[in-house]
Amino acid sequence: MTTTRGLREGDEPITMLTAYDAPTAAVVDEAGIDVILVGDSMGNAALGYDSTLPVTLDEVASRTAAVARATEDALVVADMPFLSFGVDEAESVRNAGRLLKEANADAVKIESGPHTVEMTRRMADVGIPVMAHLGLTPQHVNRLGGYTRQGTDQDAAEEIVDLAGAHAEAGAFALVLEHVPANLAAAVTEALEIPTIGIGAGADCDGQVLVINDVAGLGEWSPPFAERFGDVRSEMLDAVAAYRDAVTAGEFPSEEHSHVESELDDMY
Ligand code: KIV
Ligand code: NA
Question: How many and how are cofactors bound here (predicted)?
């Protein structure tokens, strides 16, 4: 069993991958991935939205519960969706707690900023492990004006270093660094006691995370920093087309898929 405390114990990099349903979580868990993130990337990757903003707490709770039911070893981290935290601190803590109490998450992830330091402390204090997330925070797409690399000038880089330290000090157990220069991610990793998990952040983080659709090759598009390690989309397309052809050709179901009840012989 992977725990929030044991994450940085091994010498090998930490592996983290998203999953949004039980069968996918079972595969990810069986493959030995350390952390399963029920990311709000489900907005794009599973729910057909063109951003993460419409994703609701109910959707994350339902998907997290499904993932948790299918996971034996991996740590299950539920992503807090847009506006489920940060508006009101008490409501944020209750929402995070719901993902643990009702959906069986082991921890929550929160897109972090200056406004989440005290919130992270409060959650850690009451017993909710928090994974922080800095660099590109996609819930801010309307402020950022796009999904661009962050921390590219000295001031922005220093702000990320400072916020990383503040969240670690507040009790976050790990930090996702998304779409930042590799040398910045390396510096943050060096400075922190807690593990960093990178996506589009170079090789020097303590771990890596990607979206399952990209790794499996399920979607039609992947970001340049992801790699498609499989081609599940064409596998699935072949299977579905073969089924369609078999039915239309009268080849499925065959006799082996059918049951004839001898008791019915007199009636039919
Ligand atoms: O929602 C998500 O999948 C994420 C990862 C990309 C870190 O936040
Ligand atoms: Na996310």
Answer: Binds 1 Mg(2+) ion per subunit.
